[in-house]
């Protein structure tokens, strides 16, 4: 009976582990599509009103036009004139728009055009003792200082900000995703972090 219960439990958990990510991804894609189509609804209505095509095709046409517009703008801003226009707009107009700078930083990081702030992964001695804390370098400063965000588990969106000497910051060869998973799981799987740290500190300085 115990083996049967274990089989039922493992099968149920396995099914949830497969279906839930797919369902959440589908929900996210549906939400994103509905948001985009809601934004472009005036254009879709205009296209739909002047032709006999279905609403879905009208949405697809408008989205294609928007993507082409993004491509065209991307080509233009690679030219000297485009760079000048972009820099002028940002300097004299867009910088006064509420939230523009934050949105731009987020988009640039998402597209990989700017270094992701939660990298590299580091272990820090925030109190200059033997205590090691998992953190992420978010900024570097002159004079050998850097700013490190140390998240709290299991909620990685909260944590502490430390401004430390680089002598107390130890980069480890572990991806940000792996480090974040150890924080979410309250330390489970931290062996890779500590192994990478041990290998680094034991490596001869002349290597």
UniProtKB/TrEMBL annotation:
UniProt keyword terms in alphabetical order: Membrane, Transmembrane, Transmembrane helix
Transmembrane segments: 12-33, 53-77
InterPro entries assigned: COV1-like (IPR007462)
Recorded coiled-coil stretches: none
Keyword Transmembrane helix: yes
Pfam family, one: DUF502
Family matches, as PANTHER family: COV-LIKE PROTEIN 1, PROTEIN LIKE COV 2
Protein name: DUF502 domain-containing protein
Provenance organism: Candidatus Desulfatibia profunda
């Amino acid at each position: 009976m115990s083996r049967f219960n274990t089989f039922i439990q493992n099968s149920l958990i396995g099914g949830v582990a497969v279906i839930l990510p797919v369902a959440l991804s589908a929900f996210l894609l549906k939400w994103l599509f509905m948001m985009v189509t809601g934004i472009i609804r005036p254009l879709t209505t205009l296209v739909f009103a002047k032709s006999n095509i279905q609403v879905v095709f009208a949405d697809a046409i408008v989205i294609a036009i928007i993507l082409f517009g993004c491509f065209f703008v991307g080509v233009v801003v690679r030219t000297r004139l485009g760079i000048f226009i972009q820099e002028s707009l940002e300097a004299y107009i867009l910088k006064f728009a509420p939230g523009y700078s934050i949105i731009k930083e987020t988009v640039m990081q998402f597209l990989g055009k700017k270094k992701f702030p939660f990298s590299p992964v580091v272990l820090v001695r925030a109190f200059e003792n033997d205590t090691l804390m998992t953190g992420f370098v978010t900024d570097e400063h002159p004079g050998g200082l850097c700013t490190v965000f140390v998240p709290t588990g299991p909620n990685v969106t909260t944590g502490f900000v430390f401004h430390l000497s680089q002598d107390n910051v130890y980069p480890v060869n572990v991806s940000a995703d792996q480090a974040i998973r150890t924080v979410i799981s309250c330390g489970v799987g931290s062996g890779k972090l500590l192994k990478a740290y041990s290998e680094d500190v034991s490596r001869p300085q002349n290597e």
